[in-house]
Amino acid sequence: MAKLSGLLLLLLLPLCLDSLLAVESRDLLSRQLHDSNAYLTKEEHWFDQTLDHFSPTDHRKFGQRFYEYVDFFEVAKGPIFLKICGESACNGIVNDYLSSSAELIVNPKGSVEVLLNSCSSEVKLHELEVVFVIAKKFGAAIVSLEHRYYGKSSPFKELTTANLRFLSSKQALFDLAVFRQYYQGYLNVNYNLSRESPWFVFGVSYSGALSAWFRLKFPHLTCGSLASSAVVLAVYNFTEFDQQVGESAGAECKSALQQITYLVDEELKTDSKSVKNLFAAAELKNDVDFLYLLADAAAIAFQYGNPDVLCSPIVDAMKNGKNLLVSFSLALCFHMIFAIFYFINIF
Question: For this UniProt entry, which segments traverse the membrane (predicted)?
Answer without folding.
Answer: 324-344
